[in-house]
Amino acid sequence: MVPLADCGLSRTPRAIAIVSTADRPDLVHVTALWRWEAFYRRSGVPFAQILEAATRTAASAEMIPRTVVLLVDGKPVGTASLTEHDLQERRDLTPWLAGMFVEPQARGRGYATRLIGAVEQLARVASIKTLWLYTDTAERIYANAGWWTVEIVQHNGKPFALMRRDLQKS
């Protein structure tokens, strides 16, 4: 029998917070490691390159780029970023929700939706009207959060859903 706490059905309320790596630079390493393992490791990009970019983002006073981290009971379990560009094939589109990652053991609890909402809120504060993202694995999650697929794009020889979210009416 799996204890309730181990399957996400615990009746104990959890403290959930979303913070920026600008406010919590101690979280830069873990978020860079997650992104490297999920998105860059197989392509041969060195971890040091991802860590350097994450460190620059955390030190920036600008709204873009910005990385947020979801904490559950003080422990980081997920991350997402607001960035100027994320897809080389579509440099004409900006800005992007990028680098979404939730630890596998924390998935299925609505944390991705919270991170999506946090990045969308950052964009609204910056008066951004439209956000973009691309995914080959989470199209349904984003669609359930109000995003829509505008086309299928080829990236590194694979099809990806290019999605958008309109945040403010003109």
Can you put this structure into words, describing what you see?
This protein has a 4-stranded antiparallel sheet, sandwiched between helices. It has a 3-stranded antiparallel sheet with strand order 5-7-6. The termini are far apart. It has helices at residues 28-40, 47-59, 111-125, 139-144; strands at residues 16-20, 66-72, 75-83, 96-102, 130-135, 148-155, 158-166. The radius of gyration is 16 Å and the shape is globular. 28% of the residues lie in helices and 30% in strands. Residues 1-10 have low confidence and may be disordered. A hairpin with a 2-residue loop joins strand 2 and strand 3. It contains 4 helices and 7 strands; from the N terminus they run E-H-H-E-E-E-H-E-H-E-E. The chain has 170 residues and is of the alpha+beta class. Helix 1 (28-40) packs across helix 2 (47-59). The longest helix has 15 residues, at 111-125. It has one domain (14-166): Aminopeptidase (3-Layer(aba) Sandwich).
State the gist of this model.
By secondary structure, this protein is of the alpha+beta class.
Number of domains: 1
The percent range for helix content is 25-40%
Q: What form results from the Cα inertia axes?
A: globular
Number of strands: 7
The parts where pLDDT drops under 50 for at least 5 residues are 1-10
Q: What gap, in angstroms, lies between the N and C termini?
A: 54 Å
Mean pLDDT figure: 91
Main sheet attributes: strand count, strand direction, barrel closure: 4 strands, antiparallel
**How many helices?**
4
CATH superfamily: Gcn5-related N-acetyltransferase (GNAT)
Strand content: 25-35%
Radius of gyration over alpha carbons? 16 Å
CATH class identity: Alpha Beta
